[in-house]
Amino acid sequence: MKIKRFSGANTREVLQQIRGTLGPEAVILSNRESDGAVEIVAAIDFDEKQWNETQSIPAWPEPLRTHPEKTEAFQPAQLPAQGATIAPSQSSTNPSPRDMSQPLASAPLRDELQALKQLVERRWGPQPVQQSAQEALREMGFSEEWISEFLEQGECREWELKLLNTLQEKVGISQTSLEKPGLFVLLGPTGSGKTTSIAKLAAAQVLRHGPHSVALLTTDTYRIAGVEQLEIYARILGVPLDVIKGPEDLLKSLEKHRDRSWIFIDTIGMGPRDPRLNEQLQWFAALGADAQRFLLIPASLSGRNLATVLQPYTDIPLSGAIISKIDETPAFAAVLEWLAAQHLPVAWYSDGQKVPEDMHEAPWEQIMNLLKMNSALHKERLADDPGSRYHGTQL
Length: 395
Known about the structure:
By secondary structure, this protein is α/β, with parallel strands linked by helices. Helix content is 42%, strand content 16%.
């Protein structure tokens, strides 16, 4: 009996080495993976009794292909000739070139490999590819329900591309562009960054078309220094700023600045139960199709807080969403989940305080990169406090 050890990058490569060296009647005695390589011990003129005596182990059980359910122990398998069945060839000559072009895995061999795969999954859980996808999606901030539904849709080996396509389909990108003149209203909860975002959008248009093309309006008379903050930006940009205290003021200002191509309206941020919020939303809903209404969502919002805080804004027509403060949170997939449920497309995202540099249009490839980049920080946070997860706390 001649025994030899073979190694290579994958099983197919090693089997070809064995077939070329020992011929099609070689018997596989053992296999294992080591440092990313596959190692197989094979023999020719195999004497099972002699091998058992040498290894001091019980005799080999019947082959897996005969009884697929008996997968608790590995047994030597006759190496198949190219294009042949699993039964050993009666010829000791090497396969012809025509034989070598045939598929390596015959139907019985596929059954045997499938049985081996099932054994591995029973002992060590799901395949590593799926585990990696699940963990990565958790680190991005997706909920367990969303992850379960996403991975049930099919093979997840190309899960990143599949995620990109899913988000493009369910959320999408807003078709509204600053290239066309219009009336732009920024809505959103307290602290979402509306005033700074207005300044970024207005500054971009001033740089492109000059200060004569832009006007600023604000209803933010409730927040301390809210008007003063936007007034500073207006003075720097060289554009007018009007303070709006009611619907009459709004109509007068729009008429006053009708010769300006881009009008941006900053709004007051209030709690979802504040009756004044609904009143203000009705002002801007009454503008109809003449206004582009954008919902500003802080990237850090998640779970039930997100749905509760944003619910009042779903009652009026919206052109799209702006995800703000992406640089301040390790995971923002919960916002994307909410947008998918509302079928509300993304228009822009912001990732810093610089005006106007840190306001960006939102191609999905870039959003995917941000999800993956921020997930590293999310993972570190979870390691420090395993009990803290974005979707783990019920309020």
